Every structure is written in structure tokens, then in C-alpha cells.
């Protein structure tokens, strides 16, 4: 405990985690009184795995009817959400569903979160973007993540792309947090190496970034009584520390050998623990700058975070020395000179990212030097993340981090 912590923690009401736990879901939903559901997924799961059919049949036998929408796409757009809303509402007719289930990675879970607010009245999702004065009416969501991962099964936000300007927009409210997060690590066994690497490094970024972010006592909640994010606390840091330890042990192993089930299970825990940390504490510079990187490169969420992570850690050496030392030790850095150990951490993380087949500088990501000032401006424009970066001069820090990430410069 830290005596000045200001904790506002909204975990899922039920976390069900373990190999094979997916078989428990129909009986659990029946016991909770759910009768009519909408199941959001994509064609990989409906056509290439037995998981959708198995669930539907078992639920049906217990009196739960379910409509399947398998039109989920990676990085869903607001248009996809509105089209899905119309299609699903046409199918359900007069019977309002009483729950939504999402099976997939962060993309399908985010689409389902947005649908939880659009299905009841058929309104366009644009009406729910940004901070709303009152919590929107939302169907309860049951999230079944198949990547390890985004941790979207424990966060308040749905990230969608607005196709009119290709930017990411967020529907964000604590009512969007899934009521049940069912994490069956076996769902991740079919992830190809690229998805394993991108989603795994996303989990590592969530854990480290939230471990180092602004303290809850200093966090600006913007006057909200039910904030989605509210800074780090002893509670969130406990989950972050455990998640970092698991990523240090298992991230490379899952990428090198996707059939390493111990490593897959380890990363499933890591991803969820990281979400229990960042889903309350929030994030800062890595994600803030990654949005600008994605705006130019259109590369995946995980890889655009990964390229920035070492350079952001490097910039935090003076403000977060003690925490970085703990992270360094978890990554096996044994140097008895603490300053040297902390300095070595970004180098080790950058080697890990390179091992995962992700570019380690902005230049090798295809970004031209002339684009850097625009990136600084775009990253600073994500004020909710910039405000949580715990350094005195955020604009100067962002400019330096972006410059050094382009050059590939770490250390003094
Ligand atoms: N809401 C949040 O809190 C939050 C946090 C981080 C990221 N995100 C969002 O999540 C998305 C990224 O999610 P992601 O990294 O989980 O990937 P994803 O959901 O975009 O999936 C990527 C691809 O992998 C496939 N896939 C997923 N699981 C698989 C499995 N088990 N076997 C085989 N293929 C599988 C999918 O079908 C898809 O084609 C981005 O849109 C990002 O913005 C949301």
C-alpha cells in the first residue's frame, strides 16, 4: 500500500482463467439468467475452429439462443460497426438480446464493445465517441480473448478507426468493461508467429508502461466521478510487476515455439495481469507516440508500440530509476552497478523486439526524417496520454524520444 494512493479499480465482475474453461461458459450464462445473445467473431473462428459451433450447441441445449455475426475484421472501423448494428438489429427483430459475446483478438472484442451500446437503439457509433456526461446504456459483454494480448477483456475502451480521416477513435466508459472475462489459454494456441509477437509485445508494453506511469495521486481525472483510467497505484503495480515477470520468461518462448503450452499459458496470464494494471492506471508516451507511428505506417498496434518502447524507457531513467531497476532484474540484468543496469534495460528490450521480427528504429520502419515534427505534434495531441507521462517537460521529451528512436540512439 502507498498512503497517498487514490484507487478507482473496475475489474471484470468475473474472471475465469484456465485451460479448457471455455466449456464452462454455457452453464455459467444459463445460471446467470441469460437467454438471448449475439456472438461477435470473425471467419477464422467460425470456419477454421470448432469453438463457435461447440458454444452455440451447448448454449442452445440450455435454452440460450444466439445469433452469430462473424464479420469481424482486424482494426475495425466505425463503418463496420454501424453496418453490423443494422444487420444484427434486422436479425433480432423485436427480441432485444440480453448479452453479447466476443471471441477473438482485441479487434473483435472492441467491435463487440461498441456494439453493446449501438445494438439497443440502433444509433450510429459516432454518438458514443469521447467522454459522455452520463454512462450509455450497454448490453453486458462476455469477452473470450484469443490473443495474449491487448487485454481488452478488462479495459473500458473500444478502439475503432474512423475511415473519413484514418484516425483511431475511442468509445470509452466503464460500462463497456466486460462483465465476464473468460481467458482460456488454449484459444491462443492457433495464433501464427506474427500475431503472437505483435500481441505479446503489446502485453509487455501495457505492463511496463503502466508500471512507470503517473501516480494516482497526481492523475488528472478531468472531474470524472467514474474515470476509465486514474493513474498507477500499489494495486495496479502489483499486477504490472507480475505481468512483466511473465513476459520476461515467456514472450520469446511463445514466439520461438508456438507449441510451447507452458509459455502460451504464461502469456495468457501476463496479458490479463497487464490489463488489470493498465486498465486502471492508464498509459502514456509509448502508446501516445505509437498512434502517430501507426498514422504513417499503418502497421499493427503491437509493432508500433514496440518500436517506441526502448526509447521511452531510456528517457525515464532519471524519473523512474527504482522501478526500472526492478524491471531490469526481472529481465535477468545482473550488473551490480544500478545505474548501468538501468541503462542496459532499453538495450535488452530492443534486442527482444528485434528478435520478434519488429523494426527497432523509426527509420527502419520507413519513416522519413521530415515526418518527425509532424509526429511530435500528433503524439502531443493525444493529451490524455501526454498528460500522464511523468516528466517535467513533455513536449521536449516527446521530441527527443522521437528523434532518438529515428536514429536508434540509446544511452547518453
Ligand atoms: N480496447 C483495448 O483496450 C485495446 C487495447 C489494445 C489494443 N486494442 C486493439 O486491438 C486490436 C489488436 O488486437 P490483437 O493484437 O489481439 O489482434 P487482432 O484482434 O487484430 O487479430 C489479428 C489477426 O489475428 C487473428 N487471430 C486472432 N486470434 C487468433 C488465433 N487464436 N488464432 C489464429 N488467428 C488469430 C485475427 O483473426 C486477425 O486476423 C487493435 O485494433 C487495437 O487497436 C484494444
Number of helices: 15
CATH class membership of the largest domain: Mainly Alpha
Q: How many strands, which pairing sense, and closed or not: the largest β-sheet? A: 6 strands, parallel
Give the bound compounds. Answer: nicotinamide-adenine-dinucleotide
- Helix percentage range: 40-55%
Rg (CA only): 21 Å
How does the helix and strand content classify structurally?
Answer: alpha/beta
Organism: Herminiimonas arsenicoxydans
Domain Fe-containing alcohol dehydrogenase-like C-terminal: 235-381
Protein name: Alcohol dehydrogenase, class IV
GO molecular function: alcohol dehydrogenase (NAD+) activity; metal ion binding
Essential attributes:
alpha/beta; Rossmann fold; Dehydroquinate synthase-like, alpha domain; 10% strand; binds nicotinamide-adenine-dinucleotide
Describe the 3D structure.
The protein has 412 residues and is of the alpha/beta class. The chain folds into two domains: 14-189, Rossmann fold (3-Layer(aba) Sandwich), CATH 3.40.50.1970; 193-407, Dehydroquinate synthase-like - alpha domain (Dehydroquinate synthase-like, alpha domain, Up-down Bundle), CATH 1.20.1090. The chain has helices at 25-31, 43-48, 51-61, 78-92, 106-118, 193-212, 234-256, 261-281, 285-297, 301-315, 321-330, 338-355, 372-381, 383-386, 394-407; strands at residues 14-17, 36-40, 65-69, 99-104, 141-145, 157-162, 167-172, 180-183. Strands 1-8-5-4-2-3 form a six-stranded parallel beta sheet, with helices on both faces. Strands 6-7 form a two-stranded antiparallel ribbon. Strand 4 (99-104), helix 5 and strand 5 form a beta-alpha-beta unit. Helix 10 packs across helix 15 (394-407). The longest helix has 23 residues, at 234-256. It is globular. The two termini are 34 Å apart. Nicotinamide-adenine-dinucleotide binds at residues 42, 44, 74-75, 104-108, 110, 146-147, 149-150, 152, 155, 157-159, 187-188, 190-191, 195, 198-199, 202, 301-302. Keywords: NAD, Oxidoreductase. It is an enzyme of class 1 (oxidoreductase). Residues 12-185 form the Alcohol dehydrogenase iron-type/glycerol dehydrogenase GldA domain. InterPro entries: ADH_Fe/GldA, ADH_Fe_C, ADH_Fe_CS, Alcohol_dehydrogenase_Fe. Residues 235-381 form the Fe-containing alcohol dehydrogenase-like C-terminal domain.
Amino acid at each position: 500500500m502507498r498512503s497517498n494512493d487514490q484507487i478507482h479499480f473496475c475489474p471484470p465482475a468475473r474472471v475465469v482463467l484456465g485451460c479448457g474453461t471455455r466449456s464452462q461458459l454455457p452453464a455459467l450464462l444459463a445460471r446467470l439468467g441469460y437467454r438471448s445473445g449475439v456472438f461477435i467473431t470473425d471467419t477464422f473462428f467460425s470456419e477454421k475452429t470448432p469453438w463457435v459451433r461447440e458454444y452455440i450447441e451447448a448454449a442452445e441445449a440450455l435454452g440460450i439462443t444466439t445469433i452469430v455475426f462473424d464479420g469481424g475484421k482486424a482494426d475495425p472501423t466505425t463503418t463496420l460497426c454501424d453496418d453490423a448494428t443494422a444487420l444484427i438489429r434486422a436479425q433480432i427483430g423485436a427480441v432485444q438480446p440480453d448479452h453479447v459475446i466476443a471471441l477473438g483478438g482485441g479487434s473483435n472484442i472492441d467491435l463487440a464493445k461498441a456494439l453493446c451500446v449501438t445494438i439497443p437503439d440502433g444509433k450510429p457509433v459516432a454518438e458514443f465517441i469521447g467522454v459522455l456526461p452520463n454512462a450509455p446504456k450497454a448490453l453486458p459483454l462476455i469477452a473470450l480473448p484469443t490473443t495474449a494480448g491487448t487485454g481488452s477483456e478488462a479495459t473500458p475502451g473500444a478502439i475503432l478507426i474512423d475511415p473519413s480521416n484514418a484516425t483511431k477513435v475511442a468509445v470509452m466508459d466503464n460500462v463497456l468493461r466486460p462483465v465476464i472475462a473468460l481467458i482460456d489459454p488454449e484459444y491462443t494456441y492457433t495464433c501464427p508467429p506474427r500475431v503472437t509477437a505483435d500481441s505479446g509485445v503489446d502485453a509487455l508494453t501495457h505492463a511496463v508502461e503502466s508500471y512507470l506511469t503517473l501516480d494516482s495521486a497526481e492523475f488528472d481525472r478531468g472531474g470524472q466521478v467514474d474515470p476509465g483510467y486514474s493513474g498507477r497505484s500499489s494495486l495496479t503495480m502489483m499486477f504490472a510487476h507480475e505481468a512483466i515477470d511473465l513476459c520476461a520468461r515467456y514472450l520469446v518462448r511463445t514466439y520461438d515455439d508456438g507449441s510451447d503450452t507452458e509459455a502460451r499459458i504464461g502469456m495468457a496470464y501476463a496479458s490479463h495481469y497487464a490489463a488489470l494494471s493498465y486498465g486502471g492506471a492508464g498509459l502514456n508516451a509509448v502508446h501516445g507516440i505509437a498512434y502517430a507511428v501507426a498514422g504513417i505506417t499503418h502497421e499493427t498496434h503491437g509493432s508500433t508500440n514496440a518500436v517506441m518502447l526502448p526509447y521511452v524507457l531510456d528517457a525515464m531513467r532519471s524519473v523512474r530509476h527504482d522501478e526500472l531497476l526492478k524491471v531490469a532484474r526481472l529481465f535477468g540484468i545482473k550488473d551490480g552497478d544500478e545505474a548501468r543496469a538501468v541503462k542496459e534495460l532499453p538495450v535488452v528490450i530492443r534486442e527482444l523486439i528485434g528478435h520478434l521480427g519488429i523494426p527497432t528504429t523509426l527509420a527502419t520502419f520507413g519513416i522519413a526524417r521530415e515526418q518527425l515534427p509532424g509526429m511530435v505534434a500528433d503524439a502531443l495531441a493525444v493529451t490524455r496520454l501526454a498528460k500522464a507521462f511523468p516528466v517535467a517537460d513533455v513536449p521536449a521529451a516527446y521530441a527527443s524520444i522521437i528523434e532518438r528512436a529515428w536514429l536508434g540512439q540509446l544511452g547518453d
